[in-house]
Amino acid sequence: MNKKILSLVLTGVLSASLLVGCKAKDNSAESDKLVISTWGLNEDVLKKEIFEPFAKEHGVEVVLEVGNNSDRLTKMKNNPNSNIDITYLAFSFIFSAFGILE
């Protein structure tokens, strides 16, 4: 029984983690930008290999907002109208993002 509950909770958390920081696209000029909140680790490699090809293919400007997990999560929580489209957090911070472990 405990394994079933644990697997359901983990499945829910993993599924929900895909949606952290996602928001609906609107028709404003800002919709031509994709703002990704992540770490600055390997930023130059990611830009060259992933972000630039993606931006070219989809006609958007990819903007990175970098920092540590705590600072970025606090910024999102304090500003519900944040311009961040996608947030990439460490697993332990996902619980906090959804108010599970506060």
Structural commentary:
- This protein has 102 residues and is of the alpha/beta class.
- It is built from four helices and three strands; from the N terminus they run H-E-H-E-H-E-H.
- The chain has helices at 2-17, 43-58, 69-78, 91-97; strands spanning 33-38, 61-66, 86-87.
- Strands 2-1-3 form a three-stranded parallel β-sheet, with helices on one face.
- Mean pLDDT is 76; it is low at 13-22.
Give the H and E element order: HEHEHEH
Distance between the termini: 26 Å
The Rg value, from CA coordinates, equals 16 Å
Shape: globular
Using DSSP, what is the number of strands?
3
Q: What is the share of helical residues?
A: 40-55%
Task: Please report the number of helical segments.
Answer: 4
Strand content: 5-15%
Identify low-pLDDT runs: 13-22
Structural class: alpha/beta
Question: What is the topology, as strand order, of the major beta sheet?
Answer: 2-1-3
Characterize the biggest β-sheet.
3 strands, parallel
Task: Indicate the mean pLDDT.
Answer: 76
